[in-house]
Structures are given as C-alpha cells and as structure tokens.
Amino acid sequence: MFCPFCGVHFGAFVPFCASCGRSLELLRGTEQAGGSDAPGPSGLHSAGISKQKNTNPTYKQFLDYRNSKSKERQSFTHSKVPFKQQCKTVQINIGLMSRQGYDLKAVRGKTLPLNTNPEITAQDLLKRAAIKMATFNKDLGEGPYVLLYPDCTKVVNVPGTERPFTLEEYKKEIGKNYSRITLFICSERHFEGADDTSDSDCEVVITSKSTAEFYHADTVVFEPQDYSTPDPKHIETEEAPGHSSTLQPGQVVTSDMEDLVKSPYSQYTELCAPCIEEEDEDVVEVASPNAHTSVEDTNITLSDIIGNLSHDIDHDRVSRFNISRANVWDGAVRGFKRSSYSETCDMLVNFTDDAGVFEEGLDAGGPKREFLSLLMKHLRDRPIFDGPEGHRFLVYNANAVREDAYYIAGKMIAVSVVHGGPGPHFLSENLVHYLAGQTLFRATVASITEDETRKALQELENSTSVDVLRECLMKHSTMLQTAGCLRHISKIEEKKDIVSDYLRWYIIDRNSSVLDRFKDGLSALHFLDALQQHPTLLCPVLCHTEKQLTGLELERLFKPDFSPSGSNRRLLEGQTVGYWADYLLDCEEGQSPVTLEDVLMFATGLTSLPPSGLDPLPRLQFLDNSMYPMANTCLNTIKLPLLESYTLFKSQMDFGIQNSPGFGCS
Questions:
Q1: pTM higher than 0.70 for the full model?
Q2: 427 and 534 share a domain?
Q3: Which of the chain's ends, N or C, has fewer CB atoms near its CB within 10 Å?
Q4: Where is composition skewed (Basic and acidic residues) in this entry (predicted)?
Q5: Running DSSP on this structure, what letter comes out for residue 543?
C-alpha cells in the first residue's frame, strides 16, 4: 500500500503515515488495507476490486497528477518574464567630446547616466543623449551632434560587423555590463574638423633603394636649402638598364649600404630636415577650442560694466518690497519669492518702523539703496555661509536646500550690484575665484572654523618627519579618506599637498551641489557672465577688502553748492565746509561715536561706495533754519547746519546722524 498524500510505500496498514504524518484511516477497509487476502466471496471480492479500481487512483496516476500540477505551477511563475523583458530599461553612461587642438578628446566631468531601452537605435540614442546633456549643461554648444564610440568613430554599425547599431547588440559584442558602457556625443562641426585635420597629415614612407626600383618613373632629387645638421652626402644613383627608379610622393630613398653605415641619428636628421618658409608668407595662429580665448578688456571700467548690465532693467515696471526694519531678511525673502517679482523690473521699497507705520518718503533710489545695504549685511550672517569674518564660503544646509536659499542668495547679490547697491564684501577669495572660473586656490587652515578639523590639519602641517606625518595620517585616516586625500607618502613635503587638497574639498568640492544652485542665482541679469569675463574688476566687489573709507574720500565725493561769492552767507558756508572736513577726520580717527560709514549711509543709503557709482553725484548743501543735519538719499545730498562753533556743529551732527534711521525723519 502507499500513502495517497506523499506516495510513500508501506508493507502493511498503519493508522498514520511515517513520512508526512497524515491520518490513513480513510484507507481502512479498502483494497490497499485488506490486500488480496481479504475475506469474502470471490464474486463479491472481484466486484470490490473492480469498484476500488474505478474510485481510487493508482500509484502511477498519482505521480502523473503531481507532475502535471508541478509543471502548471512553474508555468504560472514564469508567465510574466517575457513581458518584463520587453519593459526592461538599462543604464549606460553618456559623455561629451570636443576638439582639443587637432584631436577629439573627452571632456572631463561631463559624463552623465542615461536610462534607456536595450533595443534603442543609434539615432534615437543620439536624441536622448543630446537632451540629457543639454539639461545638465547650460553651456553646451549648439547642435547638430553625432554619436561616437570611445575611439572617436561615428556610431552607425556594431563594431566589426555590418549590423545596424542597437545597444543590446553592442553590449554583446563588447562583453561589458550596461553600466560600464560609455558613448559620447560631439558637435558635428568639431567632428568634421577633426577628420579634416587628420586627413591632411602627410604620410612619409621610407624604403630602400632596392624597393624603389620597382617603381617606374623619373627620380626627383630634393635638397633643402639649409640644414640644421651637417650636409649629408649626395646619393649617386645610376639607372639600371631597362628600368628607371621611381619616387612616390613623400617617399625617401636610401641605399642599402647607407642603411648599414649611417647612424640612426643621421637618418633621423635627414628625415626631419627643416621646412624653410618664405618671408612673405603669413603665419596664421590657430587657437585651441578649449582654450579661454577671450582676453579681459583692460580699457573698460567697473562702472561701465555695471552700466551695461543695468540696461536690461525696465524702469517703467516695479517690484514692490515692504520691509520692516525689525526684520529686514523676512521681508526681503517674501519679495524675492513673490510670483510677480522680476529682476528686470525696478525696485520700489517701503519701510515700516517698529510700530508698523510706513515711513514717509517716495523711493527715488534712496530707500532702495538702504534696503540693499541692509540686505547684504543680513545675508552675511545666514547659516548657508561658514568661515571667518570677511572670508566666508558656502556650506551645505539641508533646510536651506529645501527652501532654495542658495538660489535666492545668489540672485540677491546679483540684483544688489546691478541695481546700484553694494556688493557683499564678505565672500572668500577662493570661492569667488571658483565662481569666476579661475583655478587659483590659496586657502589656509585658518579658514576652517570647526575646531576638530582645524586641529587635525594643524597636526599635519606641524609634522616634522615622515614617521610623524604617517602617524598623523593614520590617526585622521577617516577624515582624510572621506575627502579622498589619504595616500602613501614618502617625503615630508607632501604634507602641503595633502592639506591643500583637503581644504579644496572642504571649501569647494563637498559643496558642489549648492554652489551650482548659487551660480544659477548669480546668473540673474547676466552678472555671472560678466564676473567670468572681467574677474579682475568684479572679484573685489564680492570679496572682503581691507580698504576702509577715508575722510578725504568723502570730502572729495560731496561737492558743495555755495551761495554767490561775496555774500555773508557764503562766508558762513565756507566756515561750515571747514567744520565738515574736521568732522570727517574725527569720524575716521574714532573721536566721534559716528563712523564714516554712518555718514555715507545718512547721505546716500549706502555703507560703502557701490561698484556702479553714485547717480546723481553727491552734493553738499547748507541750512540756516535748522540746528541738525538733513539728507535726501534719493538725490545723494546732505545738508549741513550753519553754526557758529565747531563744538556745537559736531554735537549736532552726532545727534542728528545717530537718531536719523528712517525716511522722513532725517
């Protein structure tokens, strides 16, 4: 008998299966349980056997049934595989090639992943690759493009075959995974230019005299006019009877004996004889495509650059900013994020005081300049910046990324400079050089504000021997390995390279994603383009400068409007101008609670001279009906009181300037 559940054979009936543990009571009284010796009449026994054969399966039927069910389950499992294969997508790499000199070379840092179908053709792959590359590279040149293999050949057929290109066929031929396949797109102009230059190269074939005798043409002997090496001996050749020696274009013929006698250097100098150019031929310089051919114009001034950028501003349309002096940053962010805001519109700024009352005065330029000055001051202290005072650089901040603060910060700087406001004057020189596309990088350990990292770099800098340096490298291996700076050293001088590489990673490379977004903001009003074209003039606008305002600069900046010469008022005005010059000197020397920056802010709404210059030019006027100074920041005019003594003049100036913030109150 056998178990109907698992098929295990038994010699006699048992109540439970020893293999699967199922109950076998259902077999009691059947042919399997009773066997052929079961009691009963033969007729009844035969009928019982016939009946059991009709109702109970045999062991072979049971195995066949189980096999069919197993195949059915397998077919259910694999039925969707072909559909998945049809919808399968793979990832390859797409790079960019450009002509460098006379060759096509891959551009570093431009490789991007591309998800595509394995059955894609060359034309479809080219279209998708061009779209992908243009999406992530705003500076990509105009098409059309061609799709190239890594060996710079055009993608038409699968290499080594006549079959049209498909990604799946190429993968089979090359034997690599899809993720390791890299194809390139290249401008058709660069591709054809590289072919032209490669085809124009002359080919020099060197043969012996015995080989040259097989050619049938007259022999032309060429002797250069001048030699950089001693004059080689002339080769005397005699024509064999019935034969004439032939010289193919670009072919050099030497005798068999000379091949053995002449030194390799002599052969080399003969082959490389100089090509003598006539004096009347013009020499044409061909610049490398990747070279930065634009030369900075030294005849243009900073104010001219800003003036050219400001031509895009439409003064007939305005973007409104409602700014509270208690929270300048919040109002600025709301204004820049407003859907109606455009950097090409003029700015209309309304200030409110601490009580929420709008300050009197129309914005004809003064409130805008003061707002931009306050904005640059608040921007300096935002958490997206790190580093010492005056040398701050961007750092990654997850919350700022979600709020797109890096883009807004870049746009704020561009708008401030182009709209007549000040530059930030707090960015690190290394950051600004990177933004301007320059390779100059000269950071120091003092740029790191994090104590643990700064101390680790100082330990590396202070290492006095190779053993001490290696010990420091192992001690801080995790930190250095994260930056890709951990390596084997053999000289103590290598510590400078390790520290420099880490500083570049810390300031630039690890923050590359937010730097790109910051550059997008700086591109407003084409300011980033101007920065890259004129770095010498525009970099100081962004960087910290040690130069401070001087009293002499402000004295020369404000031109006085005098009364007619010979009048009594003119005498008082001349005396007041002297008081004004002494007051500026006291502010410069710290003899007054007011600084020169406060004086400039009082008169123009700016704490520093803007890169665009002041328009209109600052003027100095006089008051005979007020004891305190007054100013019109829209006209860049300061009005001085006509007082009898310098002591009174100074005290009134200090009081008026210190209590003047707000428009309509100065």
A1: no
A2: yes
A3: N
A4: 231-241
A5: B
